[in-house]
Amino acid sequence: MALVAIRFEEELEVCITARIRVLNPLTKHENSETGEPVALKILDKEKVLKHKMAEQIKREIETMKLIKHPNVVRLYEVMGSKTKIFIVLEFVTGGELFDKIVNHGRMREDEARRYFQQLINVVDYCHSRGVFHRDLKPENLLLDAYGNLKVSDFGLSALSQQVRDDGLLHTTCGTPNYVAPEVLNDRGYDGTTADLWSCGVILFVLLAGYLPFDDSNVMNLYKKISAAEFTCPPWLSLDAMKLITRILDPNPMTEHHVTEKKEEEQPTAMNAFELISMSKGLNLGNLFDGEQQEFKRETRFTSRCPANEIIHKIEEAAKPLGFDVHKKNYKFYKSLSTCLDDVVWKTEEDMQETK
């Protein structure tokens, strides 16, 4: 498929159906190999560039490739043609948490606690990977068929590499009602505490059925947020009130401590998929390059086969399609690692079998 796409780029949309069988022209599609439904997000390049959303889309793709968690909408694959970008995502059927609140009102504490625990768990995981969501709200929290939370929309997220020399992020972004006071103050903020403030607002909404900070006048809204001016409804338990008040503390030096301090941090283990996502070989910029811009196609891979056999197989696949194969400055690394298994991405099941 890759070779065909290189020669007939305009036919890439047709080539994609080798992996995904389209069921309707909207969002739901099916993986033709497993039969599982997937969501296909189709973006028009011209519109993305017109509305200056290229950086946001690239950031979302880069971020989601780094995250693999049961409470995050999974990114399966990204493909592109001359005019379109295709993002293959996990198909989540339960709708938004926001709709659940609108339709059914406030939740019992045991139900809200379950969602909040899942939310805190996934936010902590993202932070451990150097990812800050920066737009957490019920509209971006989806529910699967079993009622489990699925965090989506990482378009405003930031990576730890974006932190400045002062150790803070400086881009003001997010949804006003859910944003932390320090984000509004425009003096820099910690992405971790900013996300946890949003989690506190979400917990309040789950238990109360309405926003803790709300005003038709934006300036008044910001004043209420900066002063943490809110009142818990009387039906909340004392423990719930204490937790919400603890999280929604306007002082970023003392706020948002939800869990006890962890013991000494262990180095984060990264599999090959995560390493590849961080390499220069995965340059998402060419998804948005115009025809006048020159870009280099590049593929890297590892193999257990001898060099001559690899070249022979490439020639066998390419020549019937009308391609010529040229060998130039290629490298075969014999000592890439102490064991090839160290750099081959394996599933959890594979890892269990090798133990």
TrEMBL record:
Key words of the record: ATP-binding, Kinase, Nucleotide-binding, Serine/threonine-protein kinase, Transferase
Where is each Protein kinase domain found?
Answer: 1-269
InterPro entries on file: Kinase-like_dom_sf, NAF/FISL_domain, NAF_dom, Prot_kinase_dom, Ser/Thr_kinase_AS
Q: One MF term from GO for this chain?
A: protein serine/threonine kinase activity
Q: Which CDD domains match?
A: CIPK_C (cd12195)
Gene3D superfamilies linked to this entry: Kinase associated domain 1, KA1, Phosphorylase Kinase, domain 1, Transferase(Phosphotransferase) domain 1
Show the SUPFAM superfamilies listed in the entry: Protein kinase-like (PK-like)
Biological-process GO terms, alphabetical: signal transduction
Query: EC no.?
Result: 2.7.11.1
Domain annotation NAF: ranges: 265-289
Report the cofactors.
Answer: Mn(2+)
* Pfam families reported in the protein's UniProt record: NAF, Pkinase
The record's annotation in PANTHER family points to: CALCIUM/CALMODULIN-DEPENDENT PROTEIN KINASE KINASE-RELATED, CBL-INTERACTING SERINE_THREONINE-PROTEIN KINASE 3
Describe the family membership recorded for this protein in Swiss-Prot or TrEMBL: Belongs to the protein kinase superfamily. CAMK Ser/Thr protein kinase family. SNF1 subfamily.
Q: What is this protein called?
A: non-specific serine/threonine protein kinase
The scientific name of the source species is Salix purpurea (Purple osier willow)
